[in-house]
Amino acid sequence: MTIEPNNFFATPTDMADLMRRLKLYSGPECVAASMGAGMAWNLAAKVSNTRPPELWANYQDDFNSMSDDDIRQETQGAQQLIDESERWVEAVAMWTAAGRPRTSDKEERA
Predict the structure, then answer these.
(1) pTM for this model (two decimals)
(2) Total H helices, total E strands in the chain
(3) What Å distances lie between residue 53 and 8, 19, 49, 50, 105, CA to CA?
(4) How far apart are CA 31 and CA 12, in angstroms?
(5) How far apart (Å, rounded) are the C-alpha atoms in residues 104 and 27?
(6) Which residues contact 36 (CB under 8 A, 6 or more apart)?
(7) I need a surface site. Which of 4, 30, 33, 87 has the fewest CB within 10 A?
(8) Computed over its alpha carbons, how large is the radius of gyration of the chain?
(9) Predicted local confidence at residue 104, as pLDDT
(10) How many whole angstroms separate alpha carbon 31 and alpha carbon 26?
């Protein structure tokens, strides 16, 4: 599964570029934009750093067990996961930037 990027929003080239863009805001807008960017960053880190242990376990003691085709397929699959994670982070940032935070069911009932 792939998710296409939303071209309505720019994609910063790196963290320094993101920080430059955040500095364009002031007051509550800066706080909200920074919080959204920080949460999106943490989500990207969590998703990209999470790897099921069974993936490596199949090849743990046998470095010759993967063919070139196996390596190519695994690389493509891993890149697809990275791409999906990056697109999800952008989607979360767009949602946050729209300024429409939702509350949990518990908060709504209180």
Answers:
(1) 0.40
(2) 5, 0
(3) 37, 34, 12, 9, 34
(4) 18
(5) 26
(6) 92, 93, 96, 97
(7) 4
(8) 19
(9) 59
(10) 8
Report which residue type is found at 55.
L
Say whether 8 sits in a helix, a strand or coil: coil
Question: Residues of 85-104 as b/e, b for ≥16 C-beta within 10 angstroms?
Answer: bbbebbebbeebeeeeeeee
Give me the chain's average pLDDT, please.
Answer: 76
- Which range, 27-31, 93-97, 106-110, is most confident? 27-31
What is the spatial distance between Cα 43 and Cα 90, in angstroms, rounded to a whole number? 10
Distance CA 78, CA 94 (A): 25
Contact 96, 15 (CB under 8 A): no
User: Any residues with CB less than 8 A from the CB of 12 and at least 6 apart, and which?
Assistant: 18, 21
Q: Which amino acid makes up residue 32?
A: A
pLDDT in tens, 31-71: 898 888 888 778 777 767 766 666 666 666 776 677 788 88
